[in-house]
Design the sequence.
C-alpha cells in the first residue's frame, strides 16, 4: 500500500488526491485482477495500473498539483550523530532535487532507486521503450548531479 501511495503522490503531488487515486487503484485492482497475466512480477503490473490511474486523474483535473515532499523512512542508527545529521540533510536535499525534476524524470528515478525496479520493469510501468527509460534515467541523473553541485563551492 505505501509504495502505491508514494507513486500516486509522486504523480499528483497532493496528499489528499494521492489517497483518492490510491483508493481508485485498489478498486480497479480488485475489479481487474483477472486481467493480470502471471508471466511477470506483480509489482510492475500494479504500478502500471497506478500510473495509468494517476495520469487519468491529472488529465481529468486539468491542472498540476502543488508539490509535497515525501517523508523519508527512518534509517538505522549510527555511532556518530554529527555524521548522521549530515547524511539526513543530504538525503533531504537529494529528495528535494529529485522532487523538483519534471514528472518524466522524477517517477523513473523513484521507481529505480526507491523501489528497485529494473529498466524493463520501469518500461512496463510507464509504457515507454526500454531505450527511452535508459535515456530518461541518464538525463535525470545528470540533472540531479548538476543541481546538487550548482550550489556547492569546490573544496
Sequence:
Amino acid at each position: 500500500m505505501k509504495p502505491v501511495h508514494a507513486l500516486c503522490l509522486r504523480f499528483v503531488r497532493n496528499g489528499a488526491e494521492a489517497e483518492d487515486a490510491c483508493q481508485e487503484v485498489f478498486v480497479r485492482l480488485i475489479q481487474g485482477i483477472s486481467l493480470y497475466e502471471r508471466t511477470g512480477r506483480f509489482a510492475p503490473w500494479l504500478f502500471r495500473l497506478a500510473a495509468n490511474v494517476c495520469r487519468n486523474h491529472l488529465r481529468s483535473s486539468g491542472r498540476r498539483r502543488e508539490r509535497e515532499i515525501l517523508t523519508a523512512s527512518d534509517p538505522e542508527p549510527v555511532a556518530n550523530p554529527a555524521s548522521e545529521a549530515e547524511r539526513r540533510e543530504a538525503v533531504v536535499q537529494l529528495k528535494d532535487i529529485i522532487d523538483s525534476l519534471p514528472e518524466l524524470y522524477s517517477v523513473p528515478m523513484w521507481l529505480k532507486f526507491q523501489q528497485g525496479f529494473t529498466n524493463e520493469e520501469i518500461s512496463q510501468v510507464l509504457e515507454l521503450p526500454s531505450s527511452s527509460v535508459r535515456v530518461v534515467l541518464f538525463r535525470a541523473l545528470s540533472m540531479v548531479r548538476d543541481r546538487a553541485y550548482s550550489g556547492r563551492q569546490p573544496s
The chain has a mean pLDDT of 79. The two ends are 43 Å apart (CA to CA).
